[in-house]
Amino acid sequence: MSMHALGPSFSQTENTMAKIVTVYLVVNEDNEAHITDGLNEALRQITHPMGSGCSDNSFIIDYSLAGQIQPIAPWIEESINNGTYKESSAQPQTAFYAVVIEQDVSAFTLGPFSTAEERDEAAKSHRAEFGTDDGIHTLDVHPDGTVDVGDYSGSDLEDTDPLLESLHAAFHMGETPISRLAGDKHFTIDKQVNEVRLTFEKLCRLEAHLGEPLLVLTDEPFQLLVPVSSMRARIETSAWKEDVAQGLTEDSFHQWRESALMKLPLARDLYSKDPALTSEEQRADGAEAKAESSQANGDGGEQELVESELVMSLRETFLNGDFPICQFPGSQYFTYQFAGDEIVVGVENIAEWEEAFGERFVLMVDKTYMPSLVPESVARANVPRDLYDEAVQNGYKGEFEAWRENRVLSMQGAADAISNAMKG
What we know:
single chain, alpha+beta, 5-stranded antiparallel β-sheet
């Protein structure tokens, strides 16, 4: 059977821009010598004589069997044998790997995986088992030989909570899914079919997931909890123009808006000041945590007493204006002196203390340039005013409170600071 080249004919009198094209062929043959001979015989019939072919008008100038002959998946071979093969099902696909840098020293790969989702699940499993000491990166190897290397962000490898994801999406759509009626004790999350109470623990996790605090917005007869970014988008220029017209402000709209945001109460502050929001759940959470810890330690609750005393000691120290969790020069660890012992602070300690204090712990560098781990409220109270004055001299036009809040929000989390310090 004769074979004719498809595509435009070739003329030596025309100016052409030649290209090299990679072609994948699936052949129903197992013997490699037969494969090579068969392809040479078939391709010469559709190749120009300049490439040792016999088709004078072919636009295929030359060819080379340069690639390796590779086996195909058993299910592809079975589909060929039974006549159910579908076009392109055997063509090479992108291979997805996770590259693990163990202790940031030696590297190995997880994979290959057929989808990015499968690779990401493997990376999450590794992170859950081995913690944050190993760096993990993405590696995509494409059929044409090109390679893409990427990074995971801090939240990419965390197990996602469907509730937090749905709230994130709702806020992004401009909705207000968290509210309470005037006179109600608790804020609830609108889940259409039923309502879920927003406990303090859920509030902390939600703010960590969003990467920003929630504000309290009164919209009679409701109180709403809204992220700062969502609230910022809600504030329109009309109210600012009215204040300008009445001579109440000379600020730009952006400065005026940031000032308005700073006047709204934080959801965490509302929870901490309202016993109706915290008393029942804190007792329940505390009892559950003690039961779990007691069962794990098998010590009848003695360990919980020590941890409670440690938390109380930290509270008292912070109230006295001291920064007790420090990283001394030359050390890879943050430590804390308690009951005559030096405690090396780990990520698990930070998680416990953040829950106990009801706020994030951050890395703060004090006036002596000593790195310390402190609650956000302590960091906020110790932001130097002279740094704000310097920022104003450099062109910053906002108020101190807005500038300070942005500075605190940008501080590195304590858990990340510990992990980075231990990596040296």
